[in-house]
Design brief:
This protein is mostly helical and 207 residues long. It has a domain of 136 residues. The chain has six helices and two strands; from the N terminus they run H-H-H-H-H-E-E-H.
């Protein structure tokens, strides 16, 4: 039972890892430093979750489940950021790029159907090392692509959290039942030993 559960959970963790790596690539292309950092931490935690599942270490799986709560919170924030919920604005540089650059999401210029047009001359406020462009004709605006990415991560995180709790429960119950029956003998199993009834008698030799 545990082997089947462990195999299924491993497959799900592989899917999570691939989805995060895909997201990390596009965040790198868009110089989104805050998501890059969050994705990197998530990748490390997923690796620890994989290790815990392979080695049947419930502490590692529990740690992964706790991190998933923070991961869901982060992705909910990303969704609110791009949908400009409340006072949030997707035009703010400080939040996702740490105010290091003026870059936006990679999908802003490379989304499906997007046409990029350079504007010359550039406005006076535009930095010299940046080009000033307009984007038009996009079939899907970049913020909705980012929202879709975060929504997928939330779905995988919720499924992973439920699965992790169930796997930890099964491992704990198996360990409890194992302790109840006494566990393994640290010296290994020893069968009944035969005792010899032959007794050695002293031998006297006469001269």
């Amino acid at each position: 039972m545990m082997e089947i559960l462990g195999k299924g959970y491993l497959e799900m963790l592989y899917v999570v890892q691939v989805s995060v790596l895909e997201r990390q690539i596009f965040d790198f292309l868009g110089y989104q430093w805050a998501p890059i950092l969050a994705n990197f931490i998530h990748i490390i935690i997923v690796i620890l979750g994989l290790f815990g599942t392979i080695q049947y270490r419930p502490r590692y799986i529990t740690g992964y489940a706790v991190w998933l709560v923070l991961w869901v919170t982060w992705n909910v924030f990303i969704i609110c950021f791009y949908l400009e919920a409340g006072d949030l604005s997707k035009e703010t540089d400080l939040i996702l790029t740490f105010n290091i650059s003026m870059h936006r999401s990679w999908w802003m210029e490379n989304g499906p159907g997007c046409t990029v047009t350079s504007v010359t001359p550039a406005p006076d406020w535009a930095p010299e090392d940046h080009r000033y462009i307009t984007v038009s004709g996009c079939l899907l605006e970049y913020q909705y692509i980012e929202v879709a990415h975060s929504s997928l991560q939330i779905f995988l995180a919720l499924a992973g959290f439920i699965y992790a709790c169930y796997v930890v429960k099964c491992i704990t119950e198996e360990e409890d039942s194992f302790d109840f029956i006494g566990g393994f003998d640290s010296y290994g199993y020893q069968g009944p030993q035969k005792t010899s009834h032959l007794q050695l008698q002293p031998m006297y030799m006469s001269k």
